[in-house]
């Protein structure tokens, strides 16, 4: 792996990903346990509506956890593509003025040339020292590709 490969590798949180994937296993396993072993399942007293309701709730919860597990930021020489929980946005490097990761921030924030900020959930405070290191790598990328000029 070259230095460029290392610099441009995707930003992905570790802790949140592990917790979300474990959560999916737990809720799906819990559903299987309820539907196969619980007294209502064995005696046939669960109505079909109850079973469908349980399955739908578990599927929606699993989808939510899956989205958490798949947040990331992909970077390249042209820009950054940020996949957060609900939205995917792409920014050219010239749109990024700065990278903020203050002590109270749960994830990195991109400060954009239009005066707005955009979260990058792929770099999270919950990853501890690794999160700090990844934030520095993001700062390096912004500096390398040229920050957008500030409007005066």
Second-tier CATH architecture of the largest domain: Roll
Any low-confidence stretches, pLDDT <50, length ≥5?
A: none
End-to-end gap: 42 Å
Query: In sequence order, what are the helices and strands, one letter per element?
Result: HHHHEEEEEEH
CATH topology of the largest domain: PH-domain like
Keywords: Membrane, Transmembrane, Transmembrane helix
Transmembrane segments: 18-38, 50-66
Organism: Sanguibacter suaedae
Protein name: PH domain-containing protein
What does this structure look like?
- With 152 residues, the protein is of the alpha+beta class.
- It folds into two domains: 15-69; 71-144, PH-domain like, CATH 2.30.29.
- Helices cover 47% and strands 22% of the residues.
- It has helices at 3-7, 15-37, 39-43, 48-69, 129-144; strands at residues 72-75, 79-83, 88-92, 96-100, 107-112, 117-124.
- The strands form two sheets. Strands 1-2-3 form a three-stranded antiparallel sheet, with no helix packed on it.
- The chain is elongated and about 65 Å long.
- The chain crosses the membrane at residues 18-38, 50-66.
- InterPro entries: CFP-6_PH.
- This is PH domain-containing protein.
- It comes from Sanguibacter suaedae.
């Amino acid at each position: 792996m070259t230095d460029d490969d290392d610099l441009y590798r995707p930003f992905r949180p570790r802790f949140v990903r592990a917790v979300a994937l474990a959560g999916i296993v737990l809720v799906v396993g819990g559903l299987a346990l309820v539907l196969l072993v619980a007294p209502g399942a064995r005696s046939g007293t669960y109505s079909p509506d109850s079973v469908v309701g349980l399955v739908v709730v578990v599927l929606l919860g699993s989808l939510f956890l899956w989205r958490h597990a798949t947040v990331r930021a992909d970077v390249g020489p042209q820009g950054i593509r940020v996949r957060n929980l609900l939205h995917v946005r792409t920014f050219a490097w010239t749109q990024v003025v700065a990278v903020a990761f203050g002590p109270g921030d749960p994830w990195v924030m991109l400060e954009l040339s239009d005066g707005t900020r955009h979260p990058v959930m792929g770099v999270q405070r919950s990853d501890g020292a690794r999160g700090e290191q990844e934030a520095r790598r993001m700062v390096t990328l912004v500096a390398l590709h040229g920050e957008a000029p500030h409007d005066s």
